[in-house]
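DM from R.C. (forwarded with permission)

"hey, sorry to bug you on a friday — could you get me a structure for this? deadline for the figure draft is monday and I only need the backbone to look sensible"
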Amino acid sequence: MPKLIALALVLLLAGFVYAFMHRNPVRRGLAGDMLASSARPALLVRPASGLVPAGAGVVDIAPDTASATGSARVYHALHASPGRGGGGGAPVRLAALLAEASSEYRWPLDVTPEPGVAVVEARTATGQLAGMNVHAATFALPPDRDALAPAFGDDPAPWRSGALVRRFTALAEMRHVKLVVEYREPLVTAGGTTAEGAPRFGRPAVLDDPAALAAFEARAEQAFRLERPDGDWAKGKDIVKPEAAPEQVKRREITRMLGILERDRGDDR
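My reply, with the result:
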């Protein structure tokens, strides 16, 4: 009889959990101009007040795994300095991505940029934002490796030689979700231009200027705020799913950008 009572309690608890999840499924997408997820606690990426929405979307990708091909759904919200050409100031871009792996996969603990993505990496750091462990990396991004550049609605001219990027990466929901936030400024390189006059990708001049590099990274930290609110945010009623990403978004480069998946074996996370 005690075993039957215990089994009944387990089934009852499972029913409550299922009913709760059915009524309150995790919602991911946009809350106003913020990238958001209603998981407990909720996750919000709030852009700085000086940035305006420049695009949003959702796309399915198929990252590689050790033995097969996994799947993930990627939500993104883009922001940029107002006006074409930065409204008279230096143009900047902010990209926030929330990548949800399918149920049988998770993201590896190593969140450093994949080889071939981070070119001429400057330096990295690890810290905390809103109680989450966050890895930061500064690197130069060539224009042909930029997964999201075609989706921005700003002037593309300043970005033709690439971007200097400060990337912040965190894992959430027992590594089922990867968050990536990138702050970008047009790349000024020591390579100059080609014979045809087109910008040429080369070593970022800022890497040889410690004060300028520190100032860039400080601007990156001020470009957004990561928040983990609870309460009504967990219901997700203010979160809407964005439309599918436009065709010009480079899905293969998004896959490369986010890296591989690994099987969820229920071990230490």
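R.C.: lifesaver. The mean pLDDT is 82.
me: no worries. The helical segments are 2-23, 210-222, 251-258.
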